[in-house]
Write a structure and sequence with these properties.
Blueprint: E1 2-5, H1 19-28, H2 35-38, E2 45-47, E3 59-64, E4 69-73, E5 76-82, E6 89-94, E7 106-111, E8 114-117, E9 123-132, E10 153-164, E11 167-178, E12 184-190, E13 196-202, E14 209-215, E15 219-220, E16 231-235, E17 249-257, E18 263-269, E19 271-276, H3 281-288, H4 290-296
Antiparallel strand pairs: 1-8, 2-19, 3-6, 4-5, 5-18, 6-17, 7-13, 7-19, 8-18, 9-10, 9-17, 10-11, 11-12, 12-15, 13-14, 14-16
Helix pairs in contact: 3-4
């Protein structure tokens, strides 16, 4: 069994999901006139798994297959399927049903991910799924091969460890699925396990878009072709605000994508955060003006890392 992981090399206080909260706090001190624009910079939540168990006020647990487990210790979430069956999983689902990127652009950040297991003929997978599968948020159907019920839809980010010619490889997939429509995938090869994954979804324009920025790894293939990059973006084909009319949840955990070898799949994660996407400099100037940005410290290119 192999374990693919990469640990961030910076202090925990530098975790970037908190950047939007810091920017918001500085901006709020400027003037009440900016308050309506600043609401988009509020951080819905951050989770750094500091307790002794999954926070039941924030998450619902779901486990599929014998001996699947979810645990929190030493500032990490560990999720394990243990068994080998296809689609077996251990997942946490947000209690909040208001995580909606069609109301404001959202950035999802994941830090300190590792994936363990022998993929066999399948894949050991970490996934984050956003949207509505069946409107009940009970968790049984919140996994990234499940077809959503009528009127619903979701998008998912998968990072998978597969075996190709007896060599473990890493792949990243952005997936969407809406009721009555087959899965649509965009898949990339990963150079290594990223230390930080920033996934932004923006449904506020005429078409919903997504973008990815990785720290500690690069992507190639998919829409990049032979180009190597730590960032990539794309447009959803069908995913729309109507699919989230009954609510939008965030689910994340481990997943046997196909039958895996003895031991199943295990993942660990240091932190996850959901924040309003911070505007690019040109957009921020239009919103706040140069003077306000200077006072808030946002004139530093993208203040995502302190």
């Amino acid at each position: 069994m192999t374990n693919i992981t990469q640990t961030p090399s910076f202090p925990a206080l530098h975790f970037p999901v908190k950047t939007a909260a810091i920017v918001c706090a500085m901006c709020l001190a400027l003037a009440p006139a900016f308050s309506s624009s600043l609401r988009a910079a509020l951080v819905p939540f951050t989770e750094e798994f500091t307790g002794a168990a999954v926070d039941s006020s924030r998450w619902t647990e779901y486990k599929s297959g014998s001996n699947a487990s979810l645990a929190v210790a030493d500032g990490k979430l560990t999720a394990a399927t243990t068994s080998t069956g296809s689609t077996n999983r251990a997942v946490i689902i947000s209690k909040s049903s208001a995580i909606n990127p069609f109301e404001q652009a959202l950035r999802f950040s994941f830090s300190g991910l590792s994936i363990s297991g022998n993929p066999g003929t399948g894949a050991n997978a970490f996934y984050a799924l956003l949207g509505n599968v069946d409107s009940d948020a009970a968790g049984a159907n919140f996994y990234p091969t499940k077809g959503p019920s009528t009127g619903n839809g979701w998008t998912s980010l998968l990072i998978e460890k597969k075996s190709v010619d007896s060599t473990d490889v890493l792949q990243l997939t952005v997936r969407e699925r809406t009721a009555g429509v087959s899965i649509i995938d965009t898949t990339y090869s990963l150079s290594a396990m990223p230390t930080i994954i920033d996934w932004t979804i923006d449904g506020t324009g005429t078409g919903a878009t997504w973008s990815l920025t990785l720290t500690g790894a690069t992507l190639t293939g998919g829409s990049l072709g032979t180009t190597t990059s730590s960032s990539v973006s794309g447009t959803f084909t069908n995913f729309a605000s109507t699919h989230l009319a009954a609510g939008s949840w965030l689910a994340l955990g481990c997943f046997n994508n196909g039958a895996v070898a003895t031991g199943g799949t295990s993942i660990s994660l240091d932190a996850v955060g959901v924040a309003a996407a911070v505007p690019e400099p040109a957009q921020a100037v239009a919103l706040f003006g140069v003077g306000a940005l200077a006072a808030a410290g946002i004139v530093l290119r993208r203040i995502r890392r302190i």
